[in-house]
Design goal:
Helices cover 28% and strands 24% of the residues. The chain has helices spanning 10-19, 39-45, 50-71, 94-110, 242-253, 271-281, 302-315, 346-353; strands at 30-31, 34-35, 37-38, 81-85, 91-93, 113-118, 125-126, 133-141, 153-160, 182-188, 192-197, 202-208, 213-218, 229-231, 264-265, 284-287, 300-301, 319-321, 338-339, 341-344. Helix 5 links the parallel strand 14 (229-231) and strand 15 (264-265). It is globular and about 55 Å long. The chain binds 2,5-anhydro-1,6-di-O-phosphono-D-glucitol (AHG) and manganese (II) ion (2 copies). One manganese (II) ion is lined by residues 96, 119, 138, 140-141, 143.
C-alpha cells in the first residue's frame, strides 16, 4: 500500500544525501522547506468565493477519474477511434468520448453549473437553471497522442452564468475571455498536474495519489520575457501568410540572420503540453492562420483552447494574441469558433507581431 502523503521519508533522504551530497532532498511533507498547501486553502488565500471553490473541486474530481482511465486505457480496451465524428468533422477517439461523458455528467449533476459546452458536444447542454456558472471544456486535448501513450490533457474555462437567460440558451457562452473567472488545464503526464488561475496569478499543482488531492507546488509562475525556443507545426509553412513565413524564416536563420541568435524548435502536438513548456521555461507557441483548408483558416478553438490558455499565460506575464489583437478581447460568435493563436514570452510575441505591421 502507498504511504500517506505526509509520510516522513527522512531516512530514505538521508541515505540519498550520503550518496549525492550536493543534491537537496526534501520530505514529501515539505516542499523546499514549506509544508505543501492543499488546493482549497490555496484558493481561499486568493479570495476565491466558496461556490467557485466547490465547482473547481467538482471539475477536479472528474480529472482524477480521467487520469486513472487514461493510465488504464490499453488494458480497458479504450485505445483507438470510435466510428463517430464530432460536429467539427473530427474523428472521435474512444477516450475523447469517455472523458467527455465523465466531465459532462459530473458537472451537470453538481448543481453548480447552468450549462456546459464541450468540443465533443454539438451545442451547449443545459444544467441547473439556478447554477451560477457555465463551463467550456476540451475533455482531451492532443487526441492524436492517445494511441502513442504521449502527453494529453483536459482544458477548462469558467464564466459566470448570465442572469435572465434560460439554461438551454447557447448564447450564454458568447462572453469574451476577459470575463473568465477561472481557467486551467490538467496534464496527464508522468505526474498529473493542474495549472490554474482564478485571476490572482497562475499556479501549478500536482495530484498526490497517496491522499488523492492536488497539492500546490508553484505559486505565481512567470513566463520568461525572452526566449530562444519556438513551437509551430512546420509542415504547414507553405500555407501561412507571408508575415508568419518571414518571421519563422528569420528564426531558422539563427545567428546568421537578423535575430542574431539561434532558436530551438519543439512540437508536442497537444496544446496543453506546448503551453506547459512555455509556462515552465518560456517560448513562443503559434497555430497561425493557414490556407490548407479554405473553409477553415484556423485550427484552435476560442472557447475551450485559446481563451483558457490566454488567461493562464497573461496571468503569468506572457502574451496571447492573434495577429490582430488580444485573444481575450474577442467577442465570440459561436461555441466552436476557431481562432489564430500566438502566445508565450512577451518580447518574442511582440517580435512576431512586428512582422505584421
Ligand atoms: P484536440 O486533440 O483537442 O482536437 O486538439 C488538438 C490541437 C492542439 O492541441 C494542438 O496544438 C494541435 O491540435 C495539433 O495540431 P497538428 O495536428 O496540426 O499538429
Ligand atoms: Mn484540443
Ligand atoms: Mn479534444
Amino acid at each position: 500500500m502507498l504511504k500517506p502523503y505526509n509520510y516522513d521519508n527522512t531516512d530514505a533522504m538521508q541515505k540519498l544525501t550520503s550518496i549525492w551530497p550536493n543534491i537537496k532532498y526534501t520530505t514529501t511533507l515539505n516542499y523546499l522547506g514549506n509544508k505543501m498547501q492543499r488546493l482549497a486553502p490555496a484558493l481561499r488565500e486568493d479570495n476565491v468565493p466558496l461556490d467557485l471553490i466547490s465547482l473547481i473541486k467538482t471539475i477536479l474530481a472528474a480529472t482524477k477519474e480521467i487520469s486513472f482511465r487514461v493510465s488504464q486505457a490499453h488494458l480497458g480496451g479504450l485505445m483507438g477511434s470510435t466510428l463517430d465524428e464530432n460536429i467539427q468533422g473530427e474523428v472521435q477517439k474512444k477516450l475523447d468520448v469517455v472523458a467527455n461523458e465523465l466531465f459532462k455528467d459530473i458537472l451537470l449533476e453538481s448543481g453548480f453549473v447552468k450549462a456546459i459546452s464541450s468540443e465533443e458536444e454539438d451545442t451547449s447542454v443545459a444544467g441547473d437553471e439556478y447554477g451560477k456558472y457555465i463551463v467550456s471544456f476540451d475533455p482531451l486535448d492532443g487526441s492524436s497522442n492517445i494511441d502513442i501513450n504521449s502527453l494529453i490533457g483536459t482544458i477548462f474555462s469558467i464564466h459566470k452564468a448570465p442572469e435572465g437567460m434560460s439554461a438551454d440558451d447557447p448564447d450564454m457562452f458568447k462572453q469574451a475571455g476577459n470575463k473568465q473567472v477561472c481557467a486551467g488545464y490538467v496534464l496527464y503526464g508522468p505526474s498529473t498536474m493542474l495549472v490554474m488561475t482564478t485571476g490572482s496569478g497562475t499556479h501549478f499543482y500536482v495530484l498526490d495519489r497517496t491522499h488523492g488531492g492536488y497539492l500546490l507546488v508553484e505559486r505565481n509562475v512567470q513566463v520568461p520575457t525572452e526566449t530562444q525556443e519556438f513551437a509551430v507545426n512546420m509542415s504547414n509553412q507553405r500555407f501561412w501568410q507571408p508575415e508568419m513565413q518571414n518571421y519563422v524564416s528569420d528564426l531558422l536563420l539563427g545567428d546568421t540572420g537578423p535575430r542574431a541568435k539561434n532558436f530551438n524548435m519543439r512540437w508536442i502536438a497537444a496544446m496543453v503540453g506546448d503551453v506547459h513548456r512555455v509556462l515552465c521555461r518560456g517560448g513562443i507557441f503559434t497555430y497561425p492562420m493557414d490556407t490548407k483548408k479554405t473553409e477553415q483558416p484556423y485550427k484552435l478553438r476560442l472557447m475551450y483552447e485559446a481563451n483558457p490558455m490566454a488567461f493562464l499565460i497573461e496571468q503569468a506575464g506572457g502574451l496571447c494574441v492573434t495577429s490582430k489583437g488580444r485573444i481575450m478581447d474577442i467577442e465570440p460568435t459561436s461555441i466552436h469558433q476557431r481562432v489564430e493563436v500566438i502566445l508565450g514570452s512577451k518580447k518574442e510575441v511582440e517580435a512576431c507581431l512586428s512582422y505584421y505591421k
